[in-house]
Design a protein that fits this description.
The protein is built from 15 helices and 27 strands. The protein is α+β, with helices and mostly antiparallel strands.
Length: 493
């Protein structure tokens, strides 16, 4: 067994350390020289690229187009929307000068006081303000609507406590920003994009999610409603995995974005914004992976099939390659990514452990006896089951196996999630059970006071009012007041 795998902390011993170990040892990312920022390594970035490609396709199917907006935002823009600046003020990184000067000896540099900016600039924590200032110039009449843009970019939020992918000061994401003629169109768009995220999470990431709407205190700063998908990790904690916001006319009014309606009268437009980030890689890790390393859904795995030949000599190695080359060509024609690892700098056992650690869905091994018998050993990463099968018909077998693995890890995650959703009407019982994690369906009276008390006493928060659970009135377990519905309460990342 490879040393990297031996050194991987077990989930049962320290789940948090297991996660940190896995991010590094599976070559996904590492800490950078800048506090709170990470370097995403090629293997980790390849997963993000696959996510990007599929999401980008899904966005464009809704009518969104990609654009790009500046990294730097005038500080005065943030102050135009009161809730927005209040929500992001403590996380902003501020550019105050535009030049450095070196010391007389040349061995140090410092800010040039003569190069102070007239107006300080914010490194974007999110782009609503700079985009709505731009939309003012793009929208004149109802014929310009809907306006639907998305951008792939990085943002900076000055986090004090960071963890790779889950919460870093700089991270990668996409942010969609749309403008509509009516409230109904904007609300429909916000909910439609939530469904896009949910479909991606479940069908591509194999991560089951709960869709719902956030409480007022948990909304995005400046939104009238925030819709969310919440995923459950293997430790029972919730991970907010994507959000879509109905912004109303707040930003349109702040930046004076109006259009002439069909009666030639000016009206403010209605807005949405929506986004997911590299946090999705964290969700992928914590939903599926095990003590052997990553378990990746085939649809997002950078390498879907790895083939390892085991030969006694060069002649046998060539014979194995000749046998398998047509098969590899067939897989590639089907869009399946294949790696043929005939390198001689690592022993087979090391390769096995390394590809398990990296979560490659299918491993194929052919040795001398397999060559003689026209067979090959197949191992699936999700269950670690191995079998020896004939080479004949292998392409179809692997194609189906990848689909089976995708479906199996979704089922496993869904079964775990569903087994850890509880209805609870007793606050003392809740306070005890929440320590072990899970999603708790509890009646809530709708007040900030009750919400704050739960958070203070249990470190749990109201994740959302879920859409997919039957809602009946009841009594709040904390205050004893009437409650219109149940909410999902959980500890979170």
């Amino acid at each position: 067994m490879a040393k990297e795998l031996k050194d991987l902390t077990k989930r049962s011993e320290n789940y948090s350390q297991w996660y940190n170990d896995l991010v590094v040892k599976a070559d996904l990312a590492e800490q950078s020289a800048v506090r709170g920022c990470m370097v995403i390594k090629p293997y980790g970035y390849a997963i993000w690229e696959k996510m990007q490609q599929q999401l980008d396709k899904m966005f464009k199917e809704t009518g969104a187009q990609n654009a790009y907006f500046p990294l730097l935002i005038p500080k005065s823009f943030l102050s135009r929307e009161a809730e927005h600046v209040k929500g992001f003020a403590k996380e902003c990184a501020v550019v105050t000068h535009y030049r450095l000067k070196s010391s007389e000896t040349g061995d140090s540099v410092e800010v040039d006081p003569a190069a102070k900016l007239e107006e300080e600039l914010i490194i974007r924590p999110t782009s609503e303000t700079i985009i709505w200032n731009t939309y003012k110039n793009w929208i004149q009449s109802w014929r310009d609507l809907p306006l639907m843009c998305n951008q792939w970019c990085n943002v900076m939020r000055w986090e004090m406590r960071t963890r790779p992918f889950l919460r870093t000061s700089e991270f990668l994401w996409q942010e969609g920003h749309t403008a509509h003629a009516t409230r109904e169109e904007a609300e429909e768009e916000a909910q439609k994009m939530l469904k896009v995220y949910a479909e991606f999470a479940e069908q591509w990431m194999a991560v089951p999610v709960v869709q719902g709407v956030k409480s007022e205190t948990e909304r995005f700063a400046g939104a009238l409603d925030t819709y969310t998908i919440e995923a459950m990790m293997q430790d029972g904690k919730a991970l907010q995995s994507g959000t879509s916001h109905f912004l109303g006319q707040n930003f349109a009014k702040s930046f004076d974005v109006t259009y002439l309606n069909k009666e030639n009268k000016p009206e403010y437009v209605w807005a949405t914004s929506w986004g997911v980030s590299t946090r999705l890689i964290g969700a992928l890790i914590m939903t599926h992976s095990d003590d052997n390393g990553l378990v990746l859904p085939p649809k997002l795995a950078p390498i879907q099939v790895v083939i390892i030949p085991i030969a006694k000599n060069e002649e046998q190695l060539k014979a194995i390659a000749d046998k398998l080359n047509p098969f590899m060509d067939d897989l590639k024609k089907l869009g399946i990514t294949v790696k043929y690892d005939d390198s001689n700098n690592k022993r087979p056992g090391f390769k096995f452990a390394d590809y398990e650690l990296k979560g490659v869905p299918v491993r194929l091994v052919m040795g001398g006896r397999d060559l003689e018998n026209n067979t090959i050993e197949v191992m699936r990463r999700d269950t670690l089951e191995k079998e020896t099968i004939p080479v004949e018909g292998l392409t179809d077998y692997i194609h189906k196996l990848l689909d089976d693995i995708q479906a199996n890890i979704l089922k496993k995650a869904k079964d775990y999630r569903d087994a850890h959703i509880y209805e609870c009407d007793n606050y003392e019982e809740f306070k005890e059970k929440i320590k072990d994690g899970g999603f708790f369906l509890c009646h809530w009276d709708g007040t900030e006071e009750t919400e704050a008390k739960i958070k203070e006493e249990t470190q749990a928060t109201i994740r959302c009012v879920p859409f997919d659970f039957e809602q009946t009135p009841g009594v709040d377990m904390v205050s004893g007041k009437p409650a219109k519905h149940r909410v999902i309460i959980a500890r979170s990342y």
